[in-house]
Design goal:
The chain is 41% helix and 16% strand. The protein has 391 residues and is α/β, with parallel strands linked by helices. The longest helix has 20 residues.
Length: 391
């Protein structure tokens, strides 16, 4: 028996459980309608919520930066990769978030797995929402701090865990602002009050709220009017900003400490100049594009109402993320494939990305969808509705 036979065994187990995943090939820009595996489909599977990856000002900024600065950073930021474009972007992010400073990482995953181990370690306590993103979960593991999970958005449970005597050195509460697979918004005012009462730090992952909620799209903290409070805000440049990267915004001393302690920052090559310039341009477009945000949420309400009227089971999302619950992995896969035959792409999401028994289609609209796109997508869901009925 070969040492590697276990690989086939693992693969077969995934296949039989309906959890096998395959890469699909996008042969067009990531817009409202894409060419997927050679088929022209309405795209309901993108995080490019405002469509900024194809905005003419964003593309022009990327092209110009490439001509001036080349294609790569050529080193980590502490060596030779700290382009002036980083400093411009970080100043813009801090201004948008209303904080003293900001720091850009290579991705949102790298940001969370770097930030959390700097904030807490052995002898400390993390309070984490049950549905937090995988990058938060992995950041908690890397920190070696004690972790307690509170029930999803259950502030009373959070306070119960905070009140338990244990003698921890530091406490950190961490939560998504907008939950990526459920589309609901964390009750930040109540969580912030709990953090104050129990002398805990508060870290918000605002990946899916940034660009969508709050004043000028500045995110979930602004949505609740909590600007200026001592809240650490993490986010990404790969969702509504339409590019690549993660960031953290907070006090100057926090950012300086992360520069010296965050391993995912210290040991990573800087982002390409085009990526930085594009993100800064997109950030400027985002802040002045109220109509894009309104259109995004209008499409979400239209789609949500239509799917509900068709009899689909949706979680009570308050945002552009609409989870259509189908239960078992194979059913979610079957419905997603049937929708593709209707020229609608709505990806199936299965464990471990979501809890067992809650496999779903993660439907996300874009501001750049046309009314015709939305109507076509609704028609596709109507045509495959029979597949969701229990036998």
């Amino acid at each position: 028996m070969s040492y590697y036979d276990w690989l086939q065994t693992e693969y077969t187990e995934l296949e039989e459980a309906g959890l096998l995943r395959h890469l699909r090939t996008v042969m067009s820009p990531p817009t409202d309608v894409i060419t997927l595996d050679g088929n022209y489909v309405v795209n309901l599977g993108s995080n490019n919520y405002l469509g900024l990856s194809m905005h003419h000002r964003v593309i022009a900024a990327a092209v110009s930066a490439t001509y001036v600065y080349g294609t790569g950073a050529s080193g980590s930021r502490l060596i030779s990769g700290n382009s002036v474009l980083y400093e411009t972007l970080e100043a813009n992010l801090a201004k948008t978030k209303g904080t003293e400073a900001a720091l850009v990482f290579s991705s949102g995953y790298a940001a969370n797995t770097s930030i959390i181990p700097v904030l807490v370690g052995e002898g400390d306590l993390i309070l984490s929402d049950a549905l937090n993103h995988a990058s938060i979960i992995d950041g908690c593991r890397l920190s070696r701090a004690t972790k307690k999970v509170y029930r999803h958005c259950d502030v009373e449970h959070l306070k119960t865990l905070l009140a338990e005597p244990a003698g921890f050195r530091r406490r950190l509460i961490v939560t998504d602002g907008v939950f990526s697979m459920d589309g609901d918004i964390a009750p930040l005012p109540e969580i912030y009050e709990a953090a104050l009462n129990y002398n805990a730090m508060l870290l918000i992952d605002d990946a899916h709220g940034f660009g969508v909620l709050g004043k000028d799209g500045s995110g979930t903290v602004s949505h609740f009017g909590l600007e200026g409070q001592n809240i650490i805000q993490m986010g990404t440049l790969s969702k509504a900003i339409g590019g690549l990267g993660g960031y953290v915004a907070g006090s100057r001393v926090l950012i300086d400490l992360l520069i010296n302690r965050a391993r995912g920052f210290i040991f990573t090559t800087g982002l390409p100049p085009a990526t930085l310039a594009a993100a800064d341009a997109a950030l400027n477009v985002m802040r002045t594009s109220r109509n894009l945000r309104r259109q995004l949420l209008k499409h979400a309400e239209t789609m949500k109402a239509a799917l509900t009227n068709l009899g689909y089971t949706l979680l009570p999302s308050q945002t552009q993320i609409l989870p259509v619950i189908l239960g078992e992995p194979q059913r979610a896969t079957d419905v997603a494939e049937a929708l593709l035959a209707e020229d609608v792409f709505a990806p199936a999401i299965r464990p471990p990305a979501v809890p067992a028994g809650t496999s779903r289609l993660r439907v996300t609209v874009m501001a750049t969808h046309t009314d015709s796109d939305i109507e076509h997508a609704i028609g596709g869901f109507e045509n495959v509705r029979h597949l969701t009925c229990s036998e």
